[in-house]
Amino acid sequence: MNDLEIVFTLKALIATPDTATFEVLERNAHPADIAAALAQLSIADQVRLLQTASIELRAEIFGYLPEEQQLLVAEALPRSMLTTLFLQMAPDERADLYNRLPEERRETILPALAQAEREDIRRLAAYPETTVGAVMTSDYASLRAELTAAAALNELRRIAPDAETIYQAYVIDEHRHLIGTVSLRELILAAPNKLVGDFMRPDPITVHADAPREEAARLVADYDLLALPVVNDNNMLVGIVTYDDARDIEQLETDIDFHKVGAISDLGKTMKEASIWLLYRKRVFWLVLLVFGNLFSGAGIAYFEDTIAAYVALVFFLPLLIDSGGNAGSQSATLMVRALATGDVVMRDWAGMLLREIVVAGLLGATMALAVSGLGIWRGGEEIAIVVSLTMMIVVLFGSLVGMSLPFLLSKFKLDPAAASAPLITSIADIAGVLVYFALATALLDLPVPGV
Amino acid sequence: MNDLEIVFTLKALIATPDTATFEVLERNAHPADIAAALAQLSIADQVRLLQTASIELRAEIFGYLPEEQQLLVAEALPRSMLTTLFLQMAPDERADLYNRLPEERRETILPALAQAEREDIRRLAAYPETTVGAVMTSDYASLRAELTAAAALNELRRIAPDAETIYQAYVIDEHRHLIGTVSLRELILAAPNKLVGDFMRPDPITVHADAPREEAARLVADYDLLALPVVNDNNMLVGIVTYDDARDIEQLETDIDFHKVGAISDLGKTMKEASIWLLYRKRVFWLVLLVFGNLFSGAGIAYFEDTIAAYVALVFFLPLLIDSGGNAGSQSATLMVRALATGDVVMRDWAGMLLREIVVAGLLGATMALAVSGLGIWRGGEEIAIVVSLTMMIVVLFGSLVGMSLPFLLSKFKLDPAAASAPLITSIADIAGVLVYFALATALLDLPVPGV
């Protein structure tokens, strides 16, 4: 079924709720597509349709809904239905939803769940949002080392309906310490009577539940893992982060970096989901802050007012010069922020990177100086051409070095390198540009140096 | 073993090559970590060490080396060793390497390979770099619908050593048409004598080999797939894209977007790998191009030279005003480029987004106007304060609308929305800012309008 057919079927189902029609839909459409179509409808219609679906399909569709809509639907569902939905959801998604439900709604659900689920929800919901613990799932497959391959395979068959993945199983000792991993591929290839402990891979790569979530994403990517085991202080297995959860973390972190480089504070949600008020708040901070940066440029201009009055033609080149410094700086900062985020460049590369940047920026500055020298002669004569070219060379070099170094500096002080946004670099380059330009002009054009 | 121990062991191995020590390394370190340590050494040492490793480990380590290094090592390896390495590599990585080898090197390898491998390499290497065909692998597991679950499981056991994944198997008919998929989880849960055709999932999600590679990445992410089957014009199965390949594509596309927003042409490799000359070329184009944008601002300033001469104090506010418009525009463009790239926002959302942006930008403009009005009174008096505040309101609104609309427009004309870079938006906002500012000043301060 294509998207249009799904929407059409859903609309028909709103008019006449009919389990059989829903089963046709279930067989012919992916839950992700049904969720996408459903998300276009009103919350009341979404709730009505979900009530018609089978329990399993309901949980699957619900899992694919955007987080905002999950919350709205959860609040509108009858209590008994929300409870069964809760039981069907993956533990990590369930804990997420629980965290966002209003207090009174939480209290009506918890008593209806079994003790084990209650504790699981409470435990997962207790981890701060940006830690590995908050994104891991507790539905993993664990095995004992003493099992034979055949017995282990049977054990995996038994837990398959509940485990997030059975393709990686985790071997634990009697204290739940993680001692090894075994893949389903290895299990079905092993001789049936061989012991798991004899062919498991010891010393698996792990992550601590309190570690930042991006560390889990990085490990999954670096080692091409299907799932990464999560341990606590005592090296006890407490959960796993699957490859698709790792991918979601990466996307989220990339979004945050992207927005920071654009001088927007962390939105915490996608742009479409963000309200007008949220967008305003996340943008206004940087805009106003950068105004104060610009005051320095203004002060620089005010200081050189007599120079400008003597050569008004100088103003012609002002936007050109300060923008070029800012542009070169934005380029360097963008390259560096991204390289630091992906781990392509690390702290100890700083000296080497700086050296290379000086060469690249020098070449760029020389090219730009050459490009504007002709313009300088045409608009202001030879002397102004020299001032403009020299200034261009200096601001491009300065802007690039600031753009490259600031992300490193922020990183050094454990701040987010992505805070070295393009507008911030532009503001810094502006101030330098104004000062260098008018100081050079005052000196080279034999103008009186302004008093303080 | 930690990174330091691995490097230490490798250095010991350079001094005295010894297969036994390499086996200790193999048991205690992940190939990805060995590759990372190896990449720090000279190419000659890398080649020497790889020759000491077992064939399987050699191929695994080699697969984790950065692409640049793979090429250098491949060129330095003896021909016979390169051939065995080729046979061990995953088909997609092999075809990639083949494409980057110099012509004469390719010709020495091909004859040494079996007919099947030769054809496979030629076929995969023929797809353009940015298509699905170039990133897919031909090492997939395929099954016939007539098999029983038990027989299918045996078949998967047989092909496990060669297949990239056996967790998803693809059901094909006698003409290799893809008719369904079955997961290993479903296979081991099925009754042994049940036919694959009876429990496979029909109508799988597929992608065409000629489609852009980011489409494969998007499908894998949207449907949480382990692997995505790739078909040709006749719906014949030609390969699969695995989740880790999809993740690599996403990272690469994000890099490209990131750099474009920073006004850097597509580097095609990571920043660390890029040479000085490459970095220069990829940055200079935009820098010089943006100079010409700035000429319009300069021309605007020249046109209003008399206004500036009459009120030099106006120049004080110039950087502030044009930067604020540019900053607000960069914010909008960044939000929009990222939202379009992740599929969060699509073309048909344009009108709604524009409306919302007008409200947000209006609020931002009003806040900024208020912030600078006091400054205007202090520095230039009431009249200048009105000019500055009004200009601020207009440039923030204008910059935001351009920043939001340009990515949509580029997308509409099938261009990359990420080309709406922050510096480009800044240049456009600058021109508008200069014109609005001085035109308003000329009008409101009762100055003579300049002649053309």
Concise synopsis of the structure shown:
With 452 residues, the first copy, chain A, is α/β, with parallel strands linked by helices.
Spell out the blueprint of helices and strands.
Two copies of one chain form a homodimer.
Chain A: H1 3-15, H2 19-28, H3 31-38, H4 43-52, H5 55-64, H6 67-76, H7 79-88, H8 91-100, H9 103-109, H10 115-125, H11 132-135, E1 141-144, H12 149-159, E2 168-172, E3 178-183, H13 184-189, H14 196-199, E4 201-202, E5 207-208, H15 213-222, E6 227-231, E7 237-242, H16 243-261, H17 276-303, H18 305-310, H19 313-342, H20 350-380, H21 382-412, H22 422-444
Parallel strand pairs in A: 1-2, 5-6
Antiparallel strand pairs in A: 2-3, 3-4, 6-7
Question: Can you offer a commentary on this structure?
Answer:
2 copies of one chain form a homodimer. Chain A has 452 residues and is of the alpha/beta class. Chain A folds into 3 domains: 3-126, Alpha Horseshoe (MgtE N-terminal fold), CATH 1.25.60; 141-252, CBS-domain (Roll); 276-444, Tetracycline Repressor, domain 2, CATH 1.10.357. The first copy, chain A, has 22 helices and 7 strands. In chain A, helix 8 crosses helix 10 (115-125) and helix 19 packs parallel to helix 21 (382-412). The longest helix of chain A is centred in the C-terminal third of the chain and has 31 residues, at 350-380. The radius of gyration of chain A is 30 Å and the shape is elongated.
